[in-house]
Amino acid sequence: MNLTLELSDQNAAALESQARAAKMPTERYVAHLIEQGLERRHRKAVESLEGQLDQMASQVVPGVTAAEMEAALEEALANVRPRRHWRA
Q1: Domain coverage including residue 72
Q2: Would 60 be classed as within a structural domain?
Q3: Helices (H), the chain
């Protein structure tokens, strides 16, 4: 993927300095930061889903049907999925 970032001179200089300190080309350093952010976001979504499932499991009343549990699971998944904003 190719991407153009418009940063202030101060932020660009800070990234270049951090990349040098990490002994990485600036482009690779920025890609690494983005990858880490995406991984962190995914981990948080998984943790959130686990928490919701645990909460749901603790509230299950005897006699709940499989269909009701599936509906609850779908609701939990909808709450942790990233929101998408499509542009035309």
Answers
A1: 9-80
A2: yes
A3: 9-21, 26-58, 66-80
